[in-house]
Amino acid sequence: MSAAQSSSVLVTRVDGTITPVITDHLEEGLRVAEREEYAAYLVEMDTPGGLLQSTREIVQEFLAAEVPVVVYVTPSGARAASAGAYITMSAHVAAMAPGTHIGAGTPVTGQGDKASEKVINDSAAFAVSIAEQRDRSTEFARDMVREGTSVSDGEAVRTDVVDLVAPSRGALLDEVDGRTVVVGGPGGEREVVLRTADARVETHDLGFFGELRQLLASPELAFLFLSIGTLAVIYELASPGVGVGGVIGVVLLVLGFVALSVLPFNVAGLLLLLLAAALFAAEVLTPGVGVFAAGGAVALVFAGILLFRGELGVDPAVLWPTAVVVGGGAVLAGRLAWRARRAPAPTGHEGLLGRVAVVRRVDGETGQVLLDGAWWAVRGRTTPVTQGQRVRVVEIAGLELLVDTDIGDGPHPEQQR
């Protein structure tokens, strides 16, 4: 038996869904705690659940940890639901704050439906194996998966789901001080006495980029970014302008691919997404009756259904409206691009036709106006021009503009473009 080598405790915080980002963060923190021989690795948790594969990876790391792992469900009102329950039970010491609850570990699909019986059986066996290894209630572990059972902090202690209830972090560290836990995996197990009373607390945070990746770890956001970003880039390429659409599209695509780098995805879904992009591009470049856009919308729906693996999926409330909006946007973009390509491009002197200006100077029957930063000689087509008169260019005769002098009141020349 050995005592913990340090009077410091490494603390990290888990809020929100359990994703691969959280898995990487907890594994990194555990490596730091082991390498620097902290007295304990404390995970303060409030989660509604998350990905089963990510949960399995975290549990495997905690069960084989070389440093005592303490999971604390906090603050009051927090929960360790679904994935959080598995992780809490896998800790060497499991604690809860007053007013918290744990359980409801029934696996669901990406659309929120109950998973297949095969998945439920596998998850129940997984939960029971955790409980057996940590001497916790196997009955609760089984029921939380099969029946969706959830219990309060007090009942969790009474039924051997967790070890204790503590009102604060300091009280928790004081209460677990002196406890003996077994760390290490099979073949390398050893007993460690916790020395956490008055321990120095050091934090291990996600950081800005970790928080950003966690924020983007959403199937719905990834699908929206990729869909709308693709449409924006296609339209910008089909009808080049000031580049705002292209810039926004590229930014959205980058964010979408960052989300894909975090979430487990299927290649088939990604290929369908590329097919949808190609069909939308065809609609914008060769607009017709909307056949390409309709095909792109259908491909986009199937891409959303097949894009992510396991229990992940795009919510239908996001999937269908996005496909309809992007498909309709492709039709509209095609029409706008078609009109822009067919519109005559005013270049050179022809761009002056129809422009309105004010006569600045008069010399006999001719006057001078300022258009596009250049002075032009003007002559009235039917009547002479006068200083201060508003005129409209109707014809170009060499280096002289013929103007209509009877144009009445209208917009200021600077607004006439």
TrEMBL record:
Keywords: Membrane, Transmembrane, Transmembrane helix
Keyword Transmembrane helix: yes
Keyword Ribosomal protein recorded: no
Predominant location category: membrane
Membrane topology per record: Multi-pass membrane protein
Pfam family, one: NfeD1b_N
Domain NfeD-like C-terminal intervals: 350-403
GO CC, alphabetical: membrane
Subcellular location: Membrane
The NfeD integral membrane domain, residue ranges: 221-332
InterPro entries linked to this entry: ClpP/crotonase-like_dom_sf (IPR029045), Membrane_assoc_protease (IPR052165), NA-bd_OB-fold (IPR012340), NfeD-like_C (IPR002810), NfeD1b_N (IPR056738), NfeD_membrane (IPR056739)
Residues that span the membrane, as ranges: 221-238, 244-277, 284-306, 318-338
Record domain NfeD1b N-terminal: where: 9-164
Protein name per its UniProtKB record: Nodulation protein NfeD
